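Hi V.,

You were right to ask for the full record rather than a summary. Here it is.
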Amino acid sequence: MTFKVGALEVELLIGKIQEVRADIIVSNGPADLLLRNGVISKHIVNAAGEELQEELNRKYGKGIKTGEIAVSEGYNLCCEFVFHITLPKWRTSSHNPKKILENYVMKCLEKASEMQASTIAFPVLGTGSLGYPSSDSTAAIVQNIIDFAAKNPRSTLEKVIIVIFDGNSSSSKLESELEQLLQQEQDYFPKWYGDFDVHIVTGNLSEVKADVLVCNGSNDLRLQNGGLAEAMMKAAGKEIQDECEDKYPNGIQDGEVAVTEGYRLPCRWVFHTTLPKWGEPSQNPINILKTTIWNCLKVAREKRANSIAFPTLGIGNLNYPIEKVIQSTVYYLRKWATSKYSHSTIKKIIVVIYRGHSQCKETRAKLLKELNCHQGTSASVFTERICSLSVEIIVGNLLEQQVDVLVNTSTSNLKPTANTAVASAILKAAGEGMATEISNKLTTELNYGDCVITGGHQLKCKQVYHGYLPGWYSRLNQSQTPSNVLENFVYNCLKHAHETKTILSIALPAIGTGSVKFPIKEAVESIVYGIDAFAKKFRDSNLKKILVVLDSKNKDLLTLKNVSIP
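Predicted structure:
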């Protein structure tokens, strides 16, 4: 069975690790590297031949310490190299065996990438004689694959194979646990539209772990009246009904939120809500649904919750159309992501689809489609056309934009400091090659408004235009102001793109609003004036798309409502 995790393909394989074909095989064994004394390592050396043991004896005469990796050739195995590791026993170790396992998985993935490998195979480490609980082992392996894929989108690694030993009595359990963990990852949207992750879970809301679980029921808060509310009460205990009666003796109105403790549920709070049935006269069910979602997020923010789980509100006994529920839910998640509340403690939003619902698969498919349509780290503030140019101001992450050129401003020597966060992020993501190219090209310090062009290196873009701007309060000569310098810098960047001929799109951060302290309104106006001047002079340019990317953490973004394009 194969799953997709970022750019990685992850395959679950029942078999023997020593028979797997991969660039690298991971083997656990004793610290002295006498492989025949280990369970997995004995099979590895028997299949590889004595030459493998001899190589380890030569290179690692004293063995390895926990946390270290020994590397040998594969010899008669179907791999180029073997990574040898040593895990402690689960219960007898004075260390943290789960943490050691997690670190080993990440180190193996990173080392395989450094060695330009394209495939690596892991056994389900620790689950045999070492006594690791299967849930801890499978979670450690899958989570570190997820984390590696997120941090290393350009790695040479293309495939990770997880091998479940076919002679293990618990192989079906291991396969099921791994499959469930990886299936959840298929329905995972990291940093979807801003500062929070969105997870889609198929199952029972009462089994989902989150700070807040949202439970829809009747207006009188009598939880035993059936459906989701009754299932939640059975899992929580009768105390949750007692608290509802004590705090809300008159119940709640449609769209309101009643808050109780979670009791025996895997949450801190339960938010009780109520919706009218679809088609009731004098009601607008969709507006009430939207209000309910919004109010739940606001109350979760006030509670400083980190995560909240919603059921698919309205689908089921209330007969809400699936499409309308999904569209409304996704719309209000997007609205939250771009609102003044977006930079809150809420980092994870879970949508739970009840597995027992007759339209479970249809609901999940439509929800995934709607989320995929709007996936990304960008939310549009406005879009405008200036001559032949499409100009869009968005809220998002500059490094995630699919454009030909990124614009970066930094110090006079283009060496980022603690105050130049965007420049630091660009250099880090681009890799050492960009720093080397800058060093070779920059023989003297930049003047205000100068531009140095480098390749994109490990970034998604073709080129990066680097510049240097004065601080907002800098004293310049009479013919210059900080705003003029910024406007001319933007104009010159666009002109460079036009002259390159092959550049179709360019993305700029909110230049000037960081360490040089331009007020956001003046900075954006200067950028827009520079764009306007370029568009009017080069009406038939090959450059077609300009993005101005604003940081979602900037609390002054609302001032953009007053910015107008000439």
